Amino acid sequence: FDIPPEPAPDEQAQIIPAESDDTHVLSDPDDPSVPAEVLSDDPSEAEEPVEIIPEPEPIVYADNIIEIDYNALADTAKNKDIADLYRYVASLTPSKQNEYTGLFEGKNLILITAEAFSKEVIDAERTPALYRMATKGINFEDYYQPAWGGSTSTGEFSIITGILPVNKVASVRQTIGHNMYLTLGSQLMRLGYESGAYHNGSYTYYGRNETHMNFGYSKFIGMGNGMEKGVRGCWPESDDEMFRFIMPEFIESGKPFSLYFMTVSGHCAYSRAGNSMSVKNYDYFKDMDASETIKCYHAANYELELAMEYLISALEDAGISDDTVIVIGADHYPYGLEDSAAWGTDRDYLKELYGYPANSVTARDHSALIIWSGCLEDLDEPIVVSDPVYSLDIVPTLSNLFGVEYDSRLLAGRDVFSDAEPLVLWQNYSWKTDKGFYDSPSGVFTPAEGAEIEDGYVERIRSVVRNKFTFAKGILAYDLYGLIFNK
């Protein structure tokens, strides 16, 4: 404590005369006739002792790594390319654990890739369940689902695996027989979770019958190998029917579960002539101030709203909503709204949906990410993530939230709550960070408002992006996770 100096003579406190017999006046020892201060016998006015509160020790967070000597692996690698991949991993700085590490430890996980889902679907009045999940869960203010050049397959791949789909649709098939050690399905399966993967479309489409069980799920069921028992045949099929058919088994089991769903109700084309979900839900949107195509787009996506209304209600009725995490990300932007003869559209309905032209990858691929659990609604304030985030951040972020052991250096994305630098990248090598956007085709970097850009920043991030693509190619070409974790 700093002890204040004695006041200067002319700054002596004002002398307060005695006002009653209960007040004693102390005299100046050098001049007894001068009272120095007034004290009271009342103990309530006595000076309270000051409690000394020590400074809290700073929290030292551990690295999110698995203890592996990658340099040693490089020394014994069977070829130079694999050795270079190991040395690259060894050179990276892992991200740190943080205050959100283990927030969801032991909880159930329902991971959903939603067909052609968009931020514009979410509305407080029209889709109250989705709105509740988006606003009372973790709030992502700047989220993107890049179009990787492979339609649904590559978007789904990025969400499930956290690996860049560098070879477009072929990326998914390259994982057949590989060790997909870091998917959430694999991580939670190793912890003993019940698991399953589901799709309310054809079970063989994109070869999902050959790939999805390898992502950490004990079974994969779609239309043609079991889903038709609970979902009627139409095009597109009902998301609501799929969740009502699948979920009771797990909700009633009393065991922790890890489930994956690929929806289909939001699929194009968007018309009452060719979309059964647009027909089913059209009346909810018939008075919307929008074109017929946009009304049908919202009507098709409304089936996901109905599915989430059912799911949340069922979890709450079972008393496990606080113990369950629901994650929803889109597979791609709603390209069925673009001006295209392939989808029977005659003008740019995507511009109508967005309210502005989708004339850049950031404008086109902006989307919504939902991470919701009943336990998050108890927080005084929602958790908000304002930095740029994209689909490849889902696996590392959930790995940290679930408190599982993973190595942050082996994934392209980042845990958004960590100290890792935010980075969103696209198939054409464009990228966005908290400091600005780099358009690769033009070579132009546009700084974010107020951002301070240090010398060499753009070239440094360009190099980071190139390395991430090269690393992803190596993962897929050599089954790198299988080599590291011995199959």
Structure explained in plain terms:
The chain has helices at about 70-75, 80-90, 130-135, 150-160, 170-175, 185-190, 210, 240-250, 275-280, 290-315, 350-355, 360-365, 395-400, 455-480, 480-485; strands spanning about 25-30, 30-40, 110-115, 140, 145, 195-200, 220-225, 255-260, 325-330, 365, 370-375, 385, 390, 425, 430-435, 435-440, 445. It has about 475 residues and is an alpha/beta fold. A six-stranded mixed β-sheet has the order 7-6-8-3-9-11, with helices on both faces. A hairpin with a 2-residue loop joins strand 1 and strand 2 (about 30-40). Helix 8 runs parallel beside helix 10 (about 290-315). Mean pLDDT is about 90; it is low at about 1-30 and about 35-40.
What descriptive keywords fit this protein?
single chain; 487 residues; alpha/beta; six-stranded mixed sheet; four-stranded antiparallel sheet; 15 helices; 17 strands; 16% strand; globular; disordered N terminus
